[in-house]
Design a protein that fits this description.
With about 70 residues, the protein is mainly α. It folds into 2 domains: about 30 residues; about 45 residues, no CATH class. About 55% of the residues lie in helices and about 0% in strands. The protein is built from 3 helices and no strands. The longest helix has 26 residues. The radius of gyration is 18 Å and the shape is elongated. The structure holds zinc ion. The site of zinc ion has 8 residues, from helix 3.
Length: about 70
Amino acid sequence: MTDVFDRATETEEALRADALEEQARRSGLRGKTFSDSATLCLVCDEPIPMERRKAVPGVQTCVECQTMLEGGLK
Ligand SMILES: [Zn+2]
């Protein structure tokens, strides 16, 4: 029986985590997550590396464009 309970708890926790993440994403009150990151750069349409998307949750541009935007709007 313990196994059944453990498995049920795991599933429940996973579902709860998903629900919380979804809620956070909708409310916009919490920090962005990796899944909020764009797969393609908004500026140049180049694919944004997975590592960057994970490192910068919610990122919308590639390194080159980010650097350009930050440096070019002074
Ligand atoms: Zn770019």
